[in-house]
Amino acid sequence: MPRIEFTLQGTEYIELIRLLKFVGIAENGGQAQEMVTRGIVLHNGVIELRKRAKLRAGDVVCVGQNEICIKA
């Protein structure tokens, strides 16, 4: 499973759909929202249906074969 490390820079959190766009898993906001709506995004091992869920350091997001680790 490809592992992506995302570092929060000067902020406490990042919203889920912004993260998916930023790391390149989604090409745009609409695609990111569709992924969340379809229930294919896991946040700390649980299906995440909140498009604007606040992700903080220590959280792990999985989409398909991709794993994104949030760091401070």
Describe it for me?
The structure is a single chain. The protein has 72 residues and is of the alpha+beta class. The protein contains two helices and seven strands, in the order ββααβββββ. Helix content is 22%, strand content 33%. The strands form two sheets. It has a five-stranded mixed beta sheet with strand order 1-7-6-3-4, with no helix packed on it. Strands 2-5 form a two-stranded antiparallel sheet. β6 and β7 form a beta hairpin. The radius of gyration is 11 Å and the shape is globular.
The strand line-up of the biggest sheet is 1-7-6-3-4
Class per helix and strand makeup: alpha+beta
Bulk shape: globular
Q: How many beta-strand segments?
A: 7
Biggest sheet statistics = 5 strands, mixed
- Work out the helicity level: 10-25%
Uncertain parts = none
Radius of gyration: 11 Å
Secondary-structure element pattern, one letter each: EEHHEEEEE
Mean pLDDT metric: 96
Outline the secondary-structure elements.
Elements: E1 3-7, E2 14-15, H1 16-22, H2 29-37, E3 41-43, E4 46-47, E5 54-55, E6 60-63, E7 66-71
Parallel strand pairs: 1-7
Antiparallel strand pairs: 2-5, 3-4, 3-6, 6-7
Helix pairs in contact: 1-2
